Amino acid sequence: MIRYVYINNLVLNIYEKLPKIQFPLDIKSVINYLPNCRYMSYQDFAKINKCSIEDVIQICESKSGCTHYDVLQDRYLILCNQSTQDNNNIGRQRWTCGHEIGHIVCNHHAMSAYEKLSENSLLQTNNTEYEREADYFAATILAPFPLFKLLNIKSAIDVQNIFGLSAEASLYRYKQYIKTYQTRYKTSWDNDIIRLYQKKNI
Ligand SMILES: [Zn+2]
Asked: Sign (positive/negative) of CA torsion 49, 55, 58, 60?
Protein backbone atom coordinates (compact mmCIF):
# COMPACT_ATOMS: atom_id res chain seq x y z
CA MET A 1 0.00 0.00 0.00
CA ILE A 2 1.27 3.45 -0.88
CA ARG A 3 1.74 5.55 2.27
CA TYR A 4 0.15 8.72 0.89
CA VAL A 5 -0.36 10.55 4.21
CA TYR A 6 3.12 9.64 5.41
CA ILE A 7 4.66 10.93 2.17
CA ASN A 8 2.55 14.11 2.25
CA ASN A 9 4.00 14.83 5.68
CA LEU A 10 7.55 14.12 4.47
CA VAL A 11 7.04 16.79 1.80
CA LEU A 12 5.66 19.22 4.38
CA ASN A 13 8.65 18.60 6.67
CA ILE A 14 11.08 19.28 3.83
CA TYR A 15 9.24 22.47 2.80
CA GLU A 16 9.53 23.59 6.43
CA LYS A 17 13.31 23.20 6.27
CA LEU A 18 13.75 25.14 3.01
CA PRO A 19 14.52 28.86 3.32
CA LYS A 20 12.54 29.51 0.12
CA ILE A 21 9.87 27.64 -1.83
CA GLN A 22 9.96 28.64 -5.46
CA PHE A 23 8.96 26.75 -8.59
CA PRO A 24 10.36 25.07 -10.52
CA LEU A 25 11.80 23.67 -7.33
CA ASP A 26 15.60 23.54 -7.19
CA ILE A 27 15.45 19.87 -6.25
CA LYS A 28 19.23 19.45 -5.97
CA SER A 29 19.37 22.10 -3.25
CA VAL A 30 16.80 20.08 -1.29
CA ILE A 31 19.50 17.42 -0.82
CA ASN A 32 21.48 19.91 1.32
CA TYR A 33 18.73 19.74 3.90
CA LEU A 34 18.80 15.96 4.19
CA PRO A 35 21.24 14.44 6.64
CA ASN A 36 23.83 11.98 5.30
CA CYS A 37 23.01 12.69 1.69
CA ARG A 38 25.14 13.93 -1.21
CA TYR A 39 24.57 14.51 -4.90
CA MET A 40 26.88 13.89 -7.83
CA SER A 41 26.27 13.93 -11.57
CA TYR A 42 27.22 10.91 -13.69
CA GLN A 43 29.59 13.27 -15.47
CA ASP A 44 31.50 14.26 -12.31
CA PHE A 45 31.50 10.67 -11.07
CA ALA A 46 33.04 9.52 -14.36
CA LYS A 47 35.70 12.24 -14.19
CA ILE A 48 36.66 11.49 -10.58
CA ASN A 49 36.78 7.75 -11.12
CA LYS A 50 38.41 8.04 -14.55
CA CYS A 51 35.74 5.97 -16.24
CA SER A 52 33.23 6.58 -19.03
CA ILE A 53 29.59 7.65 -18.73
CA GLU A 54 28.73 4.20 -20.12
CA ASP A 55 30.55 2.67 -17.13
CA VAL A 56 28.50 4.81 -14.72
CA ILE A 57 25.30 3.75 -16.47
CA GLN A 58 26.37 0.14 -16.00
CA ILE A 59 27.26 0.64 -12.32
CA CYS A 60 23.92 2.35 -11.71
CA GLU A 61 21.99 -0.05 -13.95
CA SER A 62 20.13 3.03 -15.12
CA LYS A 63 20.59 5.69 -17.78
CA SER A 64 18.91 8.33 -15.63
CA GLY A 65 19.90 7.93 -11.98
CA CYS A 66 20.47 5.79 -8.93
CA THR A 67 21.30 6.06 -5.26
CA HIS A 68 24.13 4.30 -3.53
CA TYR A 69 23.50 3.52 0.11
CA ASP A 70 26.45 2.91 2.40
CA VAL A 71 24.84 0.72 5.04
CA LEU A 72 27.69 0.86 7.55
CA GLN A 73 27.92 4.63 7.58
CA ASP A 74 24.25 5.21 6.81
CA ARG A 75 25.17 7.60 4.00
CA TYR A 76 23.53 8.16 0.62
CA LEU A 77 24.98 9.25 -2.69
CA ILE A 78 22.48 10.24 -5.38
CA LEU A 79 23.86 9.94 -8.89
CA CYS A 80 21.99 11.57 -11.78
CA ASN A 81 22.77 11.75 -15.47
CA GLN A 82 22.99 15.42 -16.42
CA SER A 83 23.29 14.77 -20.15
CA THR A 84 20.23 15.89 -22.10
CA GLN A 85 20.80 13.20 -24.74
CA ASP A 86 18.15 10.51 -25.28
CA ASN A 87 15.32 12.86 -24.32
CA ASN A 88 16.75 13.25 -20.80
CA ASN A 89 15.56 16.87 -20.64
CA ILE A 90 15.80 19.09 -17.55
CA GLY A 91 12.23 18.17 -16.56
CA ARG A 92 13.09 14.47 -16.58
CA GLN A 93 16.30 15.10 -14.65
CA ARG A 94 14.33 17.04 -12.05
CA TRP A 95 11.93 14.11 -11.73
CA THR A 96 14.74 11.54 -11.44
CA CYS A 97 16.36 13.51 -8.62
CA GLY A 98 13.01 13.90 -6.81
CA HIS A 99 12.34 10.19 -7.25
CA GLU A 100 15.74 9.23 -5.76
CA ILE A 101 15.20 11.58 -2.79
CA GLY A 102 11.83 9.85 -2.39
CA HIS A 103 13.50 6.46 -1.98
CA ILE A 104 15.78 7.93 0.70
CA VAL A 105 13.20 9.78 2.80
CA CYS A 106 10.76 6.87 2.53
CA ASN A 107 13.55 4.73 3.98
CA HIS A 108 13.38 2.22 1.14
CA HIS A 109 17.10 1.54 1.18
CA ALA A 110 17.15 0.56 4.81
CA MET A 111 13.96 -1.44 4.29
CA SER A 112 15.40 -3.22 1.31
CA ALA A 113 17.83 -6.09 1.42
CA TYR A 114 19.73 -4.45 -1.43
CA GLU A 115 22.42 -1.87 -0.93
CA LYS A 116 21.67 -0.14 -4.15
CA LEU A 117 18.30 0.54 -5.68
CA SER A 118 18.46 1.19 -9.35
CA GLU A 119 15.51 1.83 -11.56
CA ASN A 120 15.93 -1.14 -13.86
CA SER A 121 16.78 -3.79 -11.32
CA LEU A 122 13.98 -2.58 -9.09
CA LEU A 123 11.42 -2.97 -11.80
CA GLN A 124 12.74 -6.40 -12.58
CA THR A 125 12.65 -7.48 -8.97
CA ASN A 126 9.05 -6.35 -8.80
CA ASN A 127 9.59 -3.72 -6.15
CA THR A 128 6.87 -1.65 -7.73
CA GLU A 129 5.49 -0.38 -4.45
CA TYR A 130 8.76 1.38 -3.65
CA GLU A 131 8.76 2.80 -7.16
CA ARG A 132 5.24 4.11 -6.80
CA GLU A 133 6.04 5.70 -3.45
CA ALA A 134 9.14 7.37 -4.88
CA ASP A 135 7.09 8.64 -7.84
CA TYR A 136 4.34 9.90 -5.54
CA PHE A 137 6.96 11.75 -3.48
CA ALA A 138 8.54 13.27 -6.61
CA ALA A 139 5.16 14.40 -7.97
CA THR A 140 4.09 15.88 -4.64
CA ILE A 141 7.27 17.78 -3.85
CA LEU A 142 7.76 19.05 -7.41
CA ALA A 143 4.13 19.88 -8.25
CA PRO A 144 1.96 19.92 -5.10
CA PHE A 145 -1.79 19.77 -5.79
CA PRO A 146 -2.69 22.21 -2.96
CA LEU A 147 -0.92 25.00 -4.88
CA PHE A 148 -2.56 24.39 -8.27
CA LYS A 149 -5.43 26.78 -7.66
CA LEU A 150 -3.24 29.45 -6.10
CA LEU A 151 -0.82 29.27 -9.04
CA ASN A 152 -3.67 29.34 -11.53
CA ILE A 153 -2.84 25.95 -13.07
CA LYS A 154 -5.44 25.24 -15.74
CA SER A 155 -3.70 22.89 -18.15
CA ALA A 156 -0.85 20.46 -18.57
CA ILE A 157 1.12 23.27 -20.23
CA ASP A 158 0.72 25.35 -17.07
CA VAL A 159 2.09 22.42 -15.03
CA GLN A 160 5.05 22.24 -17.39
CA ASN A 161 5.72 25.99 -17.29
CA ILE A 162 5.29 26.55 -13.56
CA PHE A 163 6.68 23.35 -12.07
CA GLY A 164 9.21 22.44 -14.79
CA LEU A 165 8.15 18.83 -15.31
CA SER A 166 8.56 17.08 -18.65
CA ALA A 167 5.66 17.27 -21.10
CA GLU A 168 4.66 13.64 -20.37
CA ALA A 169 4.84 14.03 -16.59
CA SER A 170 2.94 17.33 -16.77
CA LEU A 171 0.09 15.78 -18.72
CA TYR A 172 -0.13 12.86 -16.31
CA ARG A 173 0.02 15.15 -13.28
CA TYR A 174 -2.70 17.44 -14.62
CA LYS A 175 -4.99 14.50 -15.47
CA GLN A 176 -4.49 13.18 -11.94
CA TYR A 177 -5.36 16.58 -10.51
CA ILE A 178 -8.63 16.73 -12.42
CA LYS A 179 -9.49 13.14 -11.57
CA THR A 180 -8.54 12.89 -7.91
CA TYR A 181 -7.92 16.26 -6.33
CA GLN A 182 -10.06 19.04 -7.66
CA THR A 183 -13.30 17.96 -6.04
CA ARG A 184 -12.07 16.58 -2.75
CA TYR A 185 -12.19 18.40 0.56
CA LYS A 186 -9.14 20.24 1.79
CA THR A 187 -7.27 18.72 4.70
CA SER A 188 -5.01 20.44 7.23
CA TRP A 189 -2.09 19.23 5.14
CA ASP A 190 -3.37 21.15 2.10
CA ASN A 191 -3.69 24.28 4.22
CA ASP A 192 -0.22 23.81 5.71
CA ILE A 193 1.32 23.52 2.23
CA ILE A 194 -0.44 26.70 1.11
CA ARG A 195 0.56 28.54 4.30
CA LEU A 196 4.21 27.54 3.98
CA TYR A 197 4.31 28.49 0.32
CA GLN A 198 2.85 31.90 1.03
CA LYS A 199 5.34 32.43 3.84
CA LYS A 200 8.41 31.26 1.91
CA ASN A 201 7.76 32.40 -1.63
CA ILE A 202 9.78 35.56 -1.23
ZN1 LIG B 1 13.27 4.08 -8.16
From this structure: positive
